[in-house]
Amino acid sequence: MDINSKNEIFIGGYNQFGKVVHNNGEIAIEYFDYYSEFKPGQVMQVVAMDEEVFYTTNHQLLVYSNDTILIEQSNAQGIKIFKQEQNLIIYMPNRGLYLWKDQKFVEHPDFELFKDIEVQDIISINSKDFIIKPQNEKGFLYYKNSELKPLYTEADNFIETNSYSVAKLLHDNFLIIGTDHGGLVCVDLDGKYQYSISMDNGLRDNQITDIFIDNKSMVWATTFNGISLVEANSDLSFFDSAFGFNGAVVSVKRYKGVLYVGTSSGVYRYHKGNIYDSERNIFDFRKRFDKVEDIRAICWQLLELNGKLCAITSDGVYQIKELESIVLLEGSFNSTLKLSFFPNNYIFGTTNGLLIAEIKENTIDTVGYLKGLNYNIRSLNEDYFGNIWMGSNEDGLFETGFYSVVSTDAQYYHYGEKQGLPAGFDWIDVFDSYHGTLFSTSKGVCRYNYSSNVFVIDTLLGIDFKKGDRHIYPIVEDNEKNLWYSCVYDGKYERETGVFLFNGANKKYTPLSKPFLQLS
């Protein structure tokens, strides 16, 4: 099957040539007549150009033009054809490469370069350049500027072991390669490994029979057990415990271009290099994340302190250097926040209250705990006016402020249902947003009305929280002021992951969750 630039689809089968047509809104196939003496057998390839369609069988090259099918080459065992934009490349075993020009074969301009190569496949790069996959040889050959050079990749051993079947050029000059036994693997044109997909991480079957790249750069892979769609152009990557980390994911941070993940069992660092296991001939996804040493507690928050990556955990505050860590402060911590009015000071939400500290080059000097606030403080946020909001597990909402001096004697206030928070709420967390602090509870999301000094149910996010049957945790604002969230509905096991798209100041957000259904 192939499609030309006119969006006409041509097909080939066993002793069949045809075209997909629409009759009264239904899809049908219009079959082409041909001389019975042709005896084509199984059609192996179809290449559809604008005015001509080419078919190969085990021993023939046929051309469909002007409503007629003719044999162009007979007794041509192993002949193969390849589309290169508006050109057709023909490989003739034991002869070399040819082009189709003016209804006839002509030798390729660099015919002598290819005459001794047994071609398994040709992948078009542009109107002039292409990549050859030689038969029974490791690696590829890159034809560019009338030169033919070896192209070795980090996936060559994997491809050789699992038997090459097909490859196509992806957007941004990546090759997506199918195998008979190992699924798909992607490399760039420098041969660097990018990713691989098999039955272990979502593919229907490991035997890839063909690949098609649509006009949105989506990869459609036909397999021995159905069709799989790979969203190769998606900005979304998905990782679970099969990739080498343990525990529920709690925090994520990209530091100096490297991804770090905080979970309920520690901190893990993304390993970008090749993860090929030569002994088992697989790409071992478990090697994708490496564990940071000596952190075995829940990592609630990953952030930079004085430009250095740190982890806020239930067992202390750690500074991370690649895969090593050192303890900066011992204790059971939930969160931290830099004070706007006093940039050298941070406050820490702990299981014992609010700890005030001063950050120095490689140390954290504690000032002390806010007096009288002996509650488990789980989240922190500072609003536009410098008020510090503190969420807790079951003790309600607290607020304080450090306006002229940082002191453990600062006054704090407690808020609950009397101030407008939802009746019967358990926990409450506070999150930053362009429109001010969001107060997320077990009964929905609220905002604070500074004029009347009461809390009101949110109406900007585009979700109805009045029934109190859903809660959102966490909420994270990106650089475009969009709010990313995870939502739980009462009585449902699945979570809804999505984003509230920012539409401007004091305007309602647009909820978007359908693209993330697989994350539920």
Helix proportion range: under 10%
Number of strands: 49
Q: Which structural class do you get from the secondary structure elements? A: mainly beta
**Beta-strand content estimate:** over 45%
The biggest beta sheet reads: 4 strands, antiparallel
Provide mean pLDDT, rounded: 93
The shape, in one word, is elongated
User: How many helix segments?
Assistant: 2
How far is the first residue's CA from the last residue's CA?
36 Å
Q: In order across it, which strands form the biggest sheet?
A: 1-2-3-4
Uncertain spans, ≥5 residues at pLDDT below 50? none
Radius of gyration: 31 Å
Instruction: Give the oligomer, counting copies of the same chain as homo and different chains as hetero.
Output: single chain
Question: If you had to describe this structure to a student in words, what would you say it looks like?
Answer:
With 520 residues, this protein is an all-beta fold. The chain is built from two helices and 49 strands. The strands form 13 sheets. A four-stranded antiparallel sheet has the order 1-2-3-4, with no helix packed on it. It has a four-stranded antiparallel sheet with strand order 5-6-7-8, with no helix packed on it. The chain has a four-stranded antiparallel sheet with strand order 9-10-11-12. A hairpin with a 3-residue loop joins strand 17 and strand 18 (174-179). The protein is elongated.
